[in-house]
Amino acid sequence: MSSEIRSLEVRPAEVSDAVAACTVLRRSIAECCGEDHKQDPAILAAWLGNKTPEMVANWFASPTNYSVVAVQDGVVVGVALLTGAGKLALCYLLPEVRGQGVGKALLERVEAQACSWGVKALQLHSTATGEGFFAKCGYIDSGKVRSPYGVETVFFWKQLDEGATAADGSKRKRFCNCNSA
Question: How far apart are CA 34 and CA 37, in angstroms?
Answer without folding.
Answer: 5
